[in-house]
Amino acid sequence: MSKLEIQATAHKTSGVSYEESLKATTLSPSIYERIGKEDGFLKLSRLFYDRVFDDEEAQWFLNIFSSSTKSEAIENQYRFLVQTFGGPDLYKQKKGKYTRLVGRHANYNIGTKAAFRWVEHMDDAIDNHEALSDDDEARDLLKKYFAFTAHYIVAASEFMRPDQLSGGTKIDPGRVW
């Protein structure tokens, strides 16, 4: 399956096009600046993972995160968000040159149902972040970015080769905790 076909699948399941999803990464001023730089993204990651780790309605969803601690998950997501939305290359410093989101998630037991649950928790975290409460544009664009990306990861993971896997339930040799 080509990258365009994967993007089309992600668009179909998320309702967001690839082009729409990218708008969050090119916003000016950047979301990094709007949210409060590193502290703002650390707060967003904490809000998100508080919801994930307190999700008593869907134990199956929490089980997806069983290979890492809450603090590890927060740290990785925080670094990724800072780098993706206009801040310094914190994720690259820890994980290397490429973000490889699909490869890093390929070993997790995720599917469309999990992507929708993930997006639900992230949307709630975005809606409850004080720095975003008066910024409809940033909130909307972040939600679109995350919806598309979650569904892209699911669509693309079906076509991963074993040599493309990184992270997940296997130890990532570049992992520094």
UniProtKB/TrEMBL annotation:
Keyword annotations for this protein, in alphabetical order, are: Heme, Iron, Metal-binding, Transport
Any one Pfam family here would be Bac_globin
Q: Which InterPro entries match?
A: GlbO/GLB3-like (IPR044203), Globin-like_sf (IPR009050), Globin/Proto (IPR012292), Hemoglobin_trunc (IPR001486)
Report which superkingdom the organism of origin falls in.
Answer: Eukaryota
Cite the GO molecular-function annotations of the record: heme binding; metal ion binding; oxygen binding; oxygen carrier activity
Tell me which stretches of the chain form a coiled coil.
none
List the PANTHER family hit by this protein, alphabetically. TWO-ON-TWO HEMOGLOBIN-3
Family listed: Belongs to the truncated hemoglobin family. Group II subfamily.
Listed name of the protein: Globin
To which species is this protein native?
Answer: Helicotheca tamesis
